[in-house]
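Hi support team,

I submitted a single chain yesterday and got back a structure, but I'm not sure I'm reading the token output correctly. Could someone confirm the output below corresponds to the sequence I sent? I've pasted both exactly as they appear in my results page.

Thanks,
R.
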Amino acid sequence: MGSVTDILNQKQKDSLQSTHPHETVLAATQKMNEHSIGALLVIDDEGNLLGIFTERDVLRRIVAAERAPSRVQVGEVMTREVACCRAETSIDDARSIFRQHRIRHLPVVDDSGKVQGPISIGDLNA
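Hi R., thanks for writing in. Yes, this is the structure output for that exact sequence:
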């Protein structure tokens, strides 16, 4: 069985959609809609992963809390504790991470924490 590198190599280079913690939730969700994706990686200016912003964050921390998306920054409502993997992670191990953490999006980072790209449960199933 292959590794996460195989999946990243199959994905388009522009598949990394991200946001900054100071972007509004409205702008971030518009980007998610534009690209038909369910999550954005939250990355600082140096390419370090700070968190992930998902549809679930929107539902729980914006809609259910009756907050105005144009007035809330992504950094206020993103998920900060993010399960990650390395490019050399086996596909079986990545599948286990998805299952164990009950997640649909998994950032791939290098040893210094720089984002290499995301993979999704759909990528594993494809």
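A quick pointer for reading it: The radius of gyration is 14 Å. Let us know if anything else looks off.

Best,
Support desk
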